[in-house]
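Hello K.,

You asked for the raw outputs rather than the summary table, so here they are, unedited. I folded two proteins back to back in the same session to keep the settings identical. This is the first:
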Amino acid sequence: MMTLMDRAQLPLNALRAFEAASRHLNFTRAADELCVSQGAVSHQVALLERRLGTPLFRRLPRGIMLTDEGQALVPVVRDAFDRIGATLDRYAGGRMTEVLTVGVVGTFAVGWLLERLDDFTQAHPHIDLRLMTNNNRVDLAGEGLDLAIRFGDGAWHGTHADRIMEAPLTPLCTPTIAERLDGPEAMSRENLLRSYRAEEWPRWFAAVGLDCPALRGPVFDSSALMIASALAGRGVALAPAEMFENELAAERLVRPFPTQVNCGAYWLTRAMSRHDTLAMRAFRDWLMRAAVG
């Protein structure tokens, strides 16, 4: 039986020769791939067979075929080389690249994060940032996320949350619709676009001292989608104005009334079971500085 020391001393050249030969089922073609002689490949495979104490190939009159033992070894060796290659690929400039996967609610991604990401990537070239947009409902562990940016009250079970910024909601609509809104009471005559958070419009109408009218029509799971509908003139959206500054600056959208209500904030979250990494801390520190800057 092989000892731990024996395993540690298995030559990589022999394993590489075996892996190439297992794909080509031909020592000559494996040798061409590895830029060595056919005899060298045959020698390395024989060396590995002696170390393992079992034949890995059957030598046939025309070519070779894997034995059962060889078949069992192939996926293990290929996986090992793939892992080594993937790890080596993560080194850049003498430093290992760390993958960071962040889930982001779509409105925040488009309205705030994307135009600032160059600052982060330039400051942290060793971090391979991967963004996954969502509709605010995420499973950190199940989706393989290191962090997630979401909107709400910050109270998610089993989750640590850092407040990024407040996101007060205010009515937003096209200039054409705004022209006929001579007061908050006129809103009852308009199509009020709504999110899946049913309390938002009632809270806004309470803030202006009015009862909320009956709400009808589609329910949106994203403020970005709701604003797209508002831009098409289909109604008035209740959304965070800070996320749509470009549309407001271009006067494609306007704020017909100054009243706004706080129904939540944007938070950076991680599962409590997930320990911080250097990349996670770097992203959090950058995000918090950018949010107040």
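The second followed immediately with the same parameters:
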Amino acid sequence: MVILKTTREIALMREAGRISQRALLLAGKAVEPGVSTFEIDRIVREYIEKQGATPSFLGYGGFPASACISVNNVVIHGIPSKKQILKEGDIVSIDVGAKLNGYHGDNAWTFPCGSVFEEAQAIMDVTKESLFEGIKNAVAGNRVGDIGHAVQKYAEARSYSVVRDFVGHGVGAKLHEDPSVPNYGTPGRGVRLLPGMVIAIEPMINQGTHRVRVLDDNWTTVTADGKLSAHFEHTVAITSNGPVILTMPD
């Protein structure tokens, strides 16, 4: 069931989104050769808790950290580790959520570690732009399929593939709510977008096949062919005046 939010609830979600977004920016600044993903997770948790908020992911379904940190061919749900040391040329997808006053904000970004190869920069650029193509279509009266189609069309036109096994979602008092928001679809199909809906739009775009596999830890999800993947996400409110990004930088 899709839960529509009031103006007050969206304002509360904007506060949660601001904390989540700032935590993500701090994490991105920490992405440097020689830094462990464990240290980046520590930075995220410390910042969120200092704001009086709770890391949305910590303990969620048993997840052991405050941020998902996914490097190179890891698509999503990478578990931070003291043993995973970033190196020059890595691309690092960081997914952060914060809960404040009963509501979540959820966002992700892929950061370069030092200088990266042209192909790595290209997939980051395409994934980021596909996110904003999706957001452009997050308009009241449209349908979820319009968002997914916009993401898919942009990415596939540039010879990338769209992950199908994992999708975006509604956000609110729960981290994951209805509706599901795939990054592929048919225009005019799916749940109709209404003012008061809040959704996470989060393209996961692969350099090669769209297929993925989950490792034995039951979290870490990698590309089936070992090629690069990138992930970008914003929490977006549907309003009568167009989409409003609740995790946009100040």
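The CA atoms of residues 96 and 135 lie 19 Å apart.

Happy to rerun anything if the numbers look odd on your end.

Regards,
P.
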